[in-house]
Amino acid sequence: MKWAGSVILEWYLAGFDDPMVVSQHFLPMKISFTSRSFGFSSGVGALVFLGLSLVSLPVDVHSADSTKFVVDKSHEYFPDHVGNEWVYQGTMIEGGMVQIKDEDTGFTNVSTVTGKEILEGVEVTVFHDTNPGNQGPSDSYYRRDAAGIRYYGSKPGTTLERQLVPYQIVRFPLESPSTFEQFQRKGVDFGMDVDRDGEQETVDITATVSVQGQETVVVPAGMYHEAIRLEAKMIMQVHLSESGKSIQGTDTMTAWFARGVGLLKYIERQTIPSLQNQNERMVEVIEELEKVTLASDVALLRRSETTAKRVFRNNLFHHELLKISASSRLPADS
After folding, report:
1. How far from the centroid of its chain's Cα atoms is residue 26's Cα?
2. What is residue 213's predicted lDDT score, i.e. its pLDDT?
3. Is 221 inside a domain boundary?
4. Is 15 domain-assigned?
Protein backbone atom coordinates (compact mmCIF):
# COMPACT_ATOMS: atom_id res chain seq x y z
CA MET A 1 0.00 0.00 0.00
CA LYS A 2 2.01 2.80 -1.18
CA TRP A 3 1.65 5.63 1.29
CA ALA A 4 -1.35 6.98 0.09
CA GLY A 5 -0.69 3.63 -2.28
CA SER A 6 1.13 5.28 -0.26
CA VAL A 7 0.01 5.90 2.85
CA ILE A 8 0.21 5.63 1.97
CA LEU A 9 1.50 9.91 2.87
CA GLU A 10 1.30 10.81 -1.61
CA TRP A 11 1.35 13.42 -4.29
CA TYR A 12 -0.24 12.71 -7.63
CA LEU A 13 -0.47 14.54 -10.92
CA ALA A 14 -3.02 17.33 -10.82
CA GLY A 15 -4.01 19.60 -13.71
CA PHE A 16 -4.03 23.34 -14.17
CA ASP A 17 -7.34 24.93 -15.12
CA ASP A 18 -5.68 27.69 -17.06
CA PRO A 19 -5.83 28.19 -20.85
CA MET A 20 -2.36 29.75 -20.82
CA VAL A 21 -0.79 26.50 -19.66
CA VAL A 22 -0.45 23.76 -22.24
CA SER A 23 0.84 21.20 -19.75
CA GLN A 24 -1.84 19.41 -17.74
CA HIS A 25 0.40 18.67 -14.78
CA PHE A 26 0.98 21.11 -11.98
CA LEU A 27 2.32 18.96 -9.18
CA PRO A 28 4.51 16.48 -11.05
CA MET A 29 5.53 14.29 -8.15
CA LYS A 30 4.31 11.65 -5.80
CA ILE A 31 5.12 11.80 -2.15
CA SER A 32 4.35 8.62 -0.34
CA PHE A 33 3.29 8.57 3.24
CA THR A 34 3.44 4.89 3.54
CA SER A 35 3.49 2.33 0.95
CA ARG A 36 -0.01 2.72 1.33
CA SER A 37 1.27 1.23 4.23
CA PHE A 38 3.85 3.78 4.04
CA GLY A 39 4.44 6.82 2.05
CA PHE A 40 3.08 10.27 2.43
CA SER A 41 3.43 13.90 3.28
CA SER A 42 1.27 16.28 5.23
CA GLY A 43 1.00 18.68 8.06
CA VAL A 44 -1.54 20.65 9.97
CA GLY A 45 -3.53 23.45 8.49
CA ALA A 46 -7.10 24.52 7.93
CA LEU A 47 -8.07 24.99 4.30
CA VAL A 48 -11.43 26.47 3.40
CA PHE A 49 -12.92 24.32 0.67
CA LEU A 50 -16.00 26.15 -0.58
CA GLY A 51 -18.13 23.65 -2.43
CA LEU A 52 -15.62 20.88 -1.70
CA SER A 53 -16.15 20.19 1.97
CA LEU A 54 -16.87 16.77 3.40
CA VAL A 55 -20.36 17.81 4.45
CA SER A 56 -21.88 15.51 1.85
CA LEU A 57 -19.48 12.67 2.60
CA PRO A 58 -19.70 10.28 5.57
CA VAL A 59 -16.67 10.78 7.81
CA ASP A 60 -16.68 7.85 10.23
CA VAL A 61 -13.85 9.07 12.42
CA HIS A 62 -14.37 9.90 16.08
CA SER A 63 -12.59 12.61 18.03
CA ALA A 64 -8.91 12.04 18.73
CA ASP A 65 -7.48 11.35 22.14
CA SER A 66 -5.03 14.15 22.83
CA THR A 67 -3.21 12.14 25.52
CA LYS A 68 0.53 11.90 24.96
CA PHE A 69 1.78 8.45 24.06
CA VAL A 70 4.70 6.57 22.50
CA VAL A 71 4.28 3.52 20.26
CA ASP A 72 7.24 1.23 20.92
CA LYS A 73 6.44 -1.32 18.18
CA SER A 74 5.79 1.34 15.57
CA HIS A 75 6.73 -0.99 12.70
CA GLU A 76 3.58 -3.05 13.34
CA TYR A 77 1.51 -0.22 11.84
CA PHE A 78 3.36 -0.54 8.52
CA PRO A 79 3.38 -4.24 7.50
CA ASP A 80 5.52 -4.85 4.43
CA HIS A 81 5.75 -8.62 3.94
CA VAL A 82 6.03 -9.62 0.30
CA GLY A 83 2.58 -10.74 -0.85
CA ASN A 84 0.60 -8.35 1.36
CA GLU A 85 -2.26 -6.75 -0.55
CA TRP A 86 -4.70 -3.94 0.21
CA VAL A 87 -7.76 -2.97 -1.84
CA TYR A 88 -9.07 0.60 -1.53
CA GLN A 89 -12.26 2.31 -2.61
CA GLY A 90 -11.44 5.78 -3.87
CA THR A 91 -13.23 9.03 -4.60
CA MET A 92 -11.84 12.07 -6.40
CA ILE A 93 -13.59 15.44 -6.23
CA GLU A 94 -12.56 18.42 -8.35
CA GLY A 95 -13.91 21.95 -8.52
CA GLY A 96 -13.31 25.65 -8.02
CA MET A 97 -12.66 27.14 -4.60
CA VAL A 98 -15.80 29.29 -4.84
CA GLN A 99 -18.16 27.03 -6.71
CA ILE A 100 -19.94 23.73 -6.30
CA LYS A 101 -17.87 20.69 -7.20
CA ASP A 102 -17.92 19.95 -10.91
CA GLU A 103 -16.66 16.38 -10.85
CA ASP A 104 -16.89 13.38 -8.51
CA THR A 105 -15.10 10.23 -9.69
CA GLY A 106 -15.02 6.78 -8.09
CA PHE A 107 -12.08 4.41 -8.55
CA THR A 108 -10.36 1.33 -7.09
CA ASN A 109 -6.70 1.00 -6.13
CA VAL A 110 -4.96 -2.27 -5.28
CA SER A 111 -1.61 -2.01 -3.49
CA THR A 112 0.69 -5.03 -3.30
CA VAL A 113 4.13 -5.68 -1.82
CA THR A 114 5.87 -7.25 -4.80
CA GLY A 115 9.45 -7.78 -3.62
CA LYS A 116 12.82 -6.27 -2.77
CA GLU A 117 15.36 -4.33 -4.84
CA ILE A 118 18.71 -2.64 -4.30
CA LEU A 119 18.69 1.16 -4.76
CA GLU A 120 21.65 3.38 -3.95
CA GLY A 121 23.34 0.45 -2.27
CA VAL A 122 20.48 -0.33 0.14
CA GLU A 123 17.68 -2.88 0.06
CA VAL A 124 14.23 -1.37 -0.43
CA THR A 125 10.71 -2.80 -0.45
CA VAL A 126 8.69 -2.43 -3.65
CA PHE A 127 4.99 -1.57 -3.55
CA HIS A 128 2.94 -1.73 -6.73
CA ASP A 129 -0.25 0.32 -6.91
CA THR A 130 -2.74 -0.19 -9.72
CA ASN A 131 -4.37 3.25 -9.55
CA PRO A 132 -3.28 5.48 -6.64
CA GLY A 133 -5.26 8.71 -6.55
CA ASN A 134 -6.89 7.59 -9.82
CA GLN A 135 -3.61 8.34 -11.63
CA GLY A 136 -2.72 4.96 -13.11
CA PRO A 137 -0.20 2.28 -12.09
CA SER A 138 3.09 2.98 -10.35
CA ASP A 139 5.80 1.33 -8.25
CA SER A 140 7.19 2.96 -5.10
CA TYR A 141 10.28 2.14 -3.05
CA TYR A 142 10.67 2.28 0.73
CA ARG A 143 13.13 1.21 3.39
CA ARG A 144 12.05 0.52 6.95
CA ASP A 145 14.56 0.21 9.79
CA ALA A 146 14.78 1.03 13.49
CA ALA A 147 14.79 4.79 12.74
CA GLY A 148 11.60 4.77 10.67
CA ILE A 149 10.66 4.67 6.99
CA ARG A 150 12.45 6.37 4.11
CA TYR A 151 11.04 6.95 0.65
CA TYR A 152 13.32 6.25 -2.34
CA GLY A 153 11.09 7.40 -5.18
CA SER A 154 8.75 5.86 -7.70
CA LYS A 155 8.39 4.69 -11.30
CA PRO A 156 7.33 6.54 -13.29
CA GLY A 157 9.07 9.33 -11.41
CA THR A 158 9.58 13.03 -12.15
CA THR A 159 12.45 15.51 -12.36
CA LEU A 160 11.34 17.15 -9.13
CA GLU A 161 10.96 13.93 -7.16
CA ARG A 162 14.40 12.67 -8.20
CA GLN A 163 15.97 15.78 -6.66
CA LEU A 164 14.28 15.18 -3.30
CA VAL A 165 14.62 11.46 -2.60
CA PRO A 166 15.50 9.72 -0.43
CA TYR A 167 13.78 11.35 2.54
CA GLN A 168 12.12 10.18 5.73
CA ILE A 169 8.35 9.85 5.84
CA VAL A 170 7.88 8.29 9.30
CA ARG A 171 10.02 8.41 12.43
CA PHE A 172 10.21 5.60 14.98
CA PRO A 173 9.15 5.41 17.68
CA LEU A 174 5.86 7.15 16.90
CA GLU A 175 5.26 9.84 19.51
CA SER A 176 2.11 11.91 19.87
CA PRO A 177 1.95 14.80 19.58
CA SER A 178 5.07 15.35 17.48
CA THR A 179 6.10 16.99 14.20
CA PHE A 180 9.19 16.77 12.04
CA GLU A 181 10.29 18.41 8.82
CA GLN A 182 10.79 15.99 5.95
CA PHE A 183 12.75 18.49 3.92
CA GLN A 184 13.04 22.14 2.97
CA ARG A 185 14.57 22.99 -0.40
CA LYS A 186 14.89 26.26 -2.33
CA GLY A 187 15.54 26.93 -5.98
CA VAL A 188 14.90 23.35 -7.06
CA ASP A 189 14.33 22.64 -10.76
CA PHE A 190 10.56 22.27 -11.10
CA GLY A 191 11.00 20.19 -14.25
CA MET A 192 8.36 22.17 -16.15
CA ASP A 193 7.96 25.37 -18.14
CA VAL A 194 4.75 26.57 -16.52
CA ASP A 195 4.56 30.04 -18.13
CA ARG A 196 5.64 28.76 -21.57
CA ASP A 197 8.58 31.15 -21.99
CA GLY A 198 11.08 28.44 -22.91
CA GLU A 199 12.66 28.23 -19.45
CA GLN A 200 11.84 25.74 -16.72
CA GLU A 201 10.66 27.20 -13.43
CA THR A 202 12.25 26.78 -10.01
CA VAL A 203 10.42 25.95 -6.81
CA ASP A 204 10.83 26.33 -3.05
CA ILE A 205 9.30 23.37 -1.28
CA THR A 206 8.72 22.43 2.36
CA ALA A 207 7.18 19.23 3.74
CA THR A 208 6.28 18.30 7.32
CA VAL A 209 4.68 15.28 9.04
CA SER A 210 2.81 15.26 12.35
CA VAL A 211 1.56 12.49 14.62
CA GLN A 212 -1.83 13.72 15.83
CA GLY A 213 -3.10 10.98 18.14
CA GLN A 214 -5.31 7.89 18.09
CA GLU A 215 -8.90 7.57 16.86
CA THR A 216 -11.59 5.04 16.03
CA VAL A 217 -12.01 4.77 12.26
CA VAL A 218 -14.79 3.09 10.26
CA VAL A 219 -14.03 2.00 6.69
CA PRO A 220 -15.65 -0.60 4.40
CA ALA A 221 -13.31 -3.26 5.86
CA GLY A 222 -14.67 -2.65 9.37
CA MET A 223 -14.16 -0.62 12.54
CA TYR A 224 -10.67 -0.11 13.94
CA HIS A 225 -9.95 1.31 17.37
CA GLU A 226 -6.85 3.29 18.37
CA ALA A 227 -5.78 3.94 14.78
CA ILE A 228 -2.87 6.36 14.60
CA ARG A 229 -3.60 9.60 12.80
CA LEU A 230 -0.79 11.17 10.78
CA GLU A 231 -1.03 14.48 8.99
CA ALA A 232 1.36 15.82 6.37
CA LYS A 233 1.58 19.07 4.50
CA MET A 234 3.61 20.24 1.54
CA ILE A 235 3.86 23.85 0.37
CA MET A 236 5.30 24.60 -3.07
CA GLN A 237 6.22 28.13 -4.12
CA VAL A 238 6.76 28.07 -7.90
CA HIS A 239 8.79 30.99 -9.30
CA LEU A 240 7.74 32.04 -12.80
CA SER A 241 10.77 32.94 -14.90
CA GLU A 242 8.94 35.23 -17.34
CA SER A 243 7.20 37.57 -14.88
CA GLY A 244 9.30 37.03 -11.76
CA LYS A 245 6.12 36.35 -9.84
CA SER A 246 5.37 33.28 -7.72
CA ILE A 247 2.37 31.01 -7.39
CA GLN A 248 1.74 28.69 -4.47
CA GLY A 249 0.27 25.20 -4.40
CA THR A 250 -0.45 23.16 -1.28
CA ASP A 251 -1.04 19.49 -0.60
CA THR A 252 -2.43 18.35 2.74
CA MET A 253 -3.00 14.73 3.65
CA THR A 254 -4.52 13.06 6.71
CA ALA A 255 -4.07 9.30 7.05
CA TRP A 256 -5.04 6.65 9.60
CA PHE A 257 -3.06 3.45 10.29
CA ALA A 258 -4.10 0.37 12.26
CA ARG A 259 -1.75 -1.96 14.07
CA GLY A 260 -1.04 -5.07 12.03
CA VAL A 261 -3.11 -3.79 9.10
CA GLY A 262 -1.52 -0.61 7.76
CA LEU A 263 -3.24 2.26 6.01
CA LEU A 264 -7.00 2.39 6.65
CA LYS A 265 -7.91 5.68 5.05
CA TYR A 266 -6.47 8.91 3.75
CA ILE A 267 -7.89 12.25 2.69
CA GLU A 268 -5.68 14.37 0.43
CA ARG A 269 -6.49 17.94 -0.58
CA GLN A 270 -4.62 20.01 -3.14
CA THR A 271 -4.99 23.65 -4.10
CA ILE A 272 -3.99 24.39 -7.68
CA PRO A 273 -3.38 28.06 -8.55
CA SER A 274 -4.25 29.84 -11.78
CA LEU A 275 -1.74 31.88 -13.73
CA GLN A 276 -4.45 34.34 -14.70
CA ASN A 277 -5.51 35.09 -11.12
CA GLN A 278 -8.75 33.27 -11.73
CA ASN A 279 -10.50 30.97 -9.32
CA GLU A 280 -8.11 28.47 -7.72
CA ARG A 281 -9.01 24.84 -8.14
CA MET A 282 -9.31 22.22 -5.45
CA VAL A 283 -8.67 18.51 -5.85
CA GLU A 284 -9.66 16.14 -3.06
CA VAL A 285 -8.90 12.41 -3.01
CA ILE A 286 -10.17 9.88 -0.47
CA GLU A 287 -9.19 6.21 -0.32
CA GLU A 288 -10.67 3.77 2.21
CA LEU A 289 -9.68 0.18 2.92
CA GLU A 290 -12.13 -2.34 1.47
CA LYS A 291 -10.20 -5.56 2.13
CA VAL A 292 -6.73 -6.71 3.08
CA THR A 293 -4.73 -9.90 2.69
CA LEU A 294 -1.60 -10.19 4.84
CA ALA A 295 0.95 -12.82 3.86
CA SER A 296 1.81 -13.57 7.49
CA ASP A 297 -1.82 -14.29 8.35
CA VAL A 298 -2.32 -16.55 5.34
CA ALA A 299 0.78 -18.53 6.27
CA LEU A 300 -0.39 -18.88 9.86
CA LEU A 301 -3.83 -20.20 8.90
CA ARG A 302 -2.43 -22.65 6.39
CA ARG A 303 -0.19 -24.15 9.06
CA SER A 304 -3.24 -24.89 11.18
CA GLU A 305 -5.20 -28.10 10.72
CA THR A 306 -8.17 -27.13 12.89
CA THR A 307 -11.55 -27.10 11.21
CA ALA A 308 -12.40 -23.65 12.54
CA LYS A 309 -9.34 -22.05 11.05
CA ARG A 310 -9.87 -23.75 7.70
CA VAL A 311 -13.36 -22.25 7.66
CA PHE A 312 -12.02 -18.80 8.48
CA ARG A 313 -9.42 -18.99 5.75
CA ASN A 314 -11.81 -17.47 3.25
CA ASN A 315 -12.67 -14.61 5.59
CA LEU A 316 -9.22 -13.11 6.09
CA PHE A 317 -10.43 -9.77 4.88
CA HIS A 318 -12.40 -9.27 8.09
CA HIS A 319 -10.16 -7.21 10.35
CA GLU A 320 -11.13 -9.08 13.52
CA LEU A 321 -9.44 -12.23 12.20
CA LEU A 322 -6.17 -10.38 11.78
CA LYS A 323 -5.83 -10.30 15.54
CA ILE A 324 -5.12 -14.04 15.70
CA SER A 325 -1.62 -13.54 14.33
CA ALA A 326 -0.42 -10.65 16.45
CA SER A 327 2.70 -12.64 17.30
CA SER A 328 3.60 -13.12 13.67
CA ARG A 329 3.98 -9.43 12.78
CA LEU A 330 7.02 -7.87 11.22
CA PRO A 331 10.46 -7.87 12.79
CA ALA A 332 11.87 -4.49 13.78
CA ASP A 333 13.92 -4.32 10.57
CA SER A 334 13.04 -5.36 7.07
Report:
1. 18
2. 95
3. yes
4. no
